[in-house]
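Predict the 3D structure for this chain.
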Amino acid sequence: MIHLFLNALAASAGAGLTYVRNIVPKISARVDVRATIALMPSLRQEFQESSNVAFVELEATGTANRFWKEQRLLPKMIRDAAADVLISTGNFALRKSPVPQILLSGNSLYTSADFSRDVWARHDYSAWLDTRIKAFFAKRSVLWTDVTVAPSRAFADVLHQWTGREVASIYHGFNREQFFRDVAPLPSNVQEKIDAADGSLKLIFVSHYNYYRNFETLLRALPLLREKIPQRKVKLFLTCKLQSDQNPGSYKAECASALVRKLDIADSVVELGSIPYHQLHHVYRSADIYVTPAYAETFAHPLVEAMACDLPIVASDTPVHREICAGSAVFFERFSPEALSAQIVKVAKAPDLASELKNHGEKRSADFSWSDHLNKILAIAQRLRTESMKTR
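Done. Predicted structure below.
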């Protein structure tokens, strides 16, 4: 039986949190695996006790603080647990791991020239510097670890070009049963906002506010849609509020809210606020088209969720989006509101095209499995363990 040490201290929001919430139950259900999992106390309460999983709680807020604690405290924790392989889930590796190490690298901002230009143009110099510093250690981490795994082939290729090291690609999964399990209705205040959009062309974008999801291009497309389809109202559902203090991270959302006022599109933008994951399927299924203008991604879980919810997709033209969607989306130049609005109109006015995209999406969503993901990670871990034992 292999014993994994899973460093999940970085799981606080977004894809990292989705990953840990899905992979821990899969590990707990295995009879051939033991695991020790380091995580934040706030996340520990989400998981039930399991005979083959032990939890180590460590308070480590902030990237710099967490990195320092990981480098200083984790080696002893790993040795005390007598683990065979370390899996680092948060983009940064342990510099001197006492056991073979698998790094899960999934942050495209460290390699994105678009993001660097974006934050510089916004005069957010602290974000620019913070990303450059993190990028240095993320690149070093690929060199420190035994195997680096990316969640898509497209991002694995980017990491390979960036570091010169071979990078494996293993898709993240999708738990269809869990995603659709909760049939409880949405809160009344949210449902009322959705119901008020009846008869409109309803677009949905699932994300908290940040720069790399490129909200501004999507907002600029809305007045163009009014011109192209004047006979029909357009409503854009956002699963966030365009207020900085209502979103994780230090991104300044006021520029987006100011753009809404400048474009006079407040009646078209419906800020639903954060929706619990177990209720997201209600929101997806209330829309007509899923739209994502993001210019930096490594996997994009909402795309898989949208496909599973039978939505056609209009996505920015990036290698990751093309790989994950695989025939279930139409694409547009990522910074062009004109191209985005044209593709939305194309899908909205062509029922056959929309139906074709939905059919492709339904089939494609079945290609993503957390069980398959874990099996492939375990295969790498077993190989590293065997190689390590041979050298002792």
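Residues 2-173+369-391 form a domain with the Rossmann fold fold (CATH 3.40.50.2000).
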